[in-house]
């Protein structure tokens, strides 16, 4: 009994010493989608800014999969030592309702770190589309519904959710082409292989500004300051497809509290940085205030979003296996 107590004490002391030394090597931030896409962009800005307060490099590692379901599973199964963390968006809240066999539980398998930012989406079309504005776009896609294709990042992606809401709002279905992220989807859109998609402004702003794609609407309730000429869906008469894509940071369940505290502090520090806030706002994103960059705020938001989207998705009867 005495020996057991001694070894437990030893293990606790060793764990707390390790937590105190944390971090003494690079940290991996896993991204569920392809490099060069919107989630990747948010990850890279956040990771770089967190590196400073942590005193170590935060390396972005892309683990792309359709629907973004692979990275959360890998982080769930990673050693809970703070060296593997996950960045994810609203998909963390929608996938439980969309997948019958999801191999992670968002509310139970992770330690939430904090909310990052909120990003509107844009409905954009390939450069060759003849439609000049939303009205013409709607007429065109409805008239050509049998040959028009919609690109997304797989079931559970933000682009999937937005497409689902949009198609239901305009009462028309299109052929859907899934990718492992909207970076490759954007390449095909620019090449004219697919016709339209709905993607975060963090991926579409520069393409819209340089006139490489056609922008028809934003999914926020107000216009996006960095894209002042693009109307909201409500302005063009489409109801029920408003959606904002929030991002959060997570560690595996069981990560020691002192390690988590350091990650929370580093994320808060990173998001207070004016350069980070400007970079996000130039891309149409709104950085969360410090009161939301906490484990409690993220867990609460995640739960509320799971309840909200879960109910809507169940009603729509959309499933993947
Ligand atoms: N925008 C993608 C989505 O639809 C993800 C990505 O490629 O970052 O969720």
Structure description:
By secondary structure, the protein is an alpha/beta fold. Helices cover 43% and strands 19% of the residues. The protein is built from 11 helices and 10 strands. It has helices spanning 2-21, 38-54, 70-76, 91-98, 134-143, 158-169, 182-190, 201-209, 257-272, 274-282, 295-316; strands at residues 27-31, 58-62, 84-88, 110-125, 149-152, 175-178, 196-200, 214-218, 244-252, 286-287. Strands 1, 2, 3, 4, 5, 6, 7, 8, 9 and 10 form a 10-stranded mixed beta sheet that branches. Helix 2 crosses helix 9. The chain is globular and about 70 Å long. Aspartic acid binds next to helix 2, helix 6, helix 7 and strand 7.
Structural class by secondary-structure content: alpha/beta
Radius of gyration based on Cα positions? 21 Å
Kindly state the number of beta strands: 10
Pattern of helices and strands? HEHEHEHEHEHEHEHEEHHEH
Work out the strand percent: 15-25%
Tell me, rounded to a whole number, the average pLDDT.
94
**Major β-sheet, in short?**
10 strands, mixed
Q: Termini distance? A: 49 Å
Helix percentage range: 40-55%
Instruction: Give the overall form.
Output: globular
Low confidence ranges: none
- What's the tally of helices? 11
**Ligand species:** aspartic acid
């Amino acid at each position: 009994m005495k020996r057991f107590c001694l070894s437990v004490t030893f293990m606790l002391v060793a764990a707390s010493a390790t937590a105190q030394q944390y971090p003494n090597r690079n940290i991996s931030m896993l991204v569920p989608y392809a490099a060069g896409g919107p989630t990747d962009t948010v990850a890279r800005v956040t990771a770089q800014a967190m590196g400073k307060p942590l005193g170590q490099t935060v390396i972005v590692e892309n683990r792309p999969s359709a629907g973004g379901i692979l990275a959360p599973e890998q982080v769930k199964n990673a050693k809970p030592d703070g060296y593997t963390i996950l960045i994810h968006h609203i998909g963390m809240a929608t996938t439980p309702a969309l997948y019958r066999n999801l191999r992670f539980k968002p509310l139970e398998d992770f330690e939430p770190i904090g909310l990052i930012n909120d990003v509107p989406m844009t409905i954009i079309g390939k450069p060759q589309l003849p439609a000049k504005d939303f009205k013409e776009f709607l007429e065109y896609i409805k008239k050509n519904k049998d040959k028009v294709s919609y690109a997304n990042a797989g079931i559970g992606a933000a682009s999937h959710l937005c497409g689902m809401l949009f198609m239901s709002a305009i009462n028309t279905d299109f052929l859907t082409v899934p990718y492992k992220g909207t970076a490759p989807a954007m390449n095909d859109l620019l090449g004219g292989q697919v016709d339209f998609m709905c993607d975060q402004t963090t991926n579409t702003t520069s393409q819209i500004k340089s006139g490489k794609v056609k922008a028809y609407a934003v999914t926020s309730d107000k216009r996006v300051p960095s894209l002042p000429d693009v109307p909201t869906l409500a302005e063009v008469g489409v109801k029920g497809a408003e959606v904002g894509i929030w991002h959060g940071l997570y560690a595996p369940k069981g990560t020691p509290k002192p390690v988590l505290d350091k990650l929370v502090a580093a994320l808060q520090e990173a998001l207070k940085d004016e350069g980070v806030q400007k970079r996000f706002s130039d891309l149409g994103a709104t950085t969360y205030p410090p009161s939301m960059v906490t484990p409690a705020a993220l867990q609460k938001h995640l739960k509320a979003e799971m309840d909200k989207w879960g109910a809507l998705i169940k009603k729509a009867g959309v499933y993947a296996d």
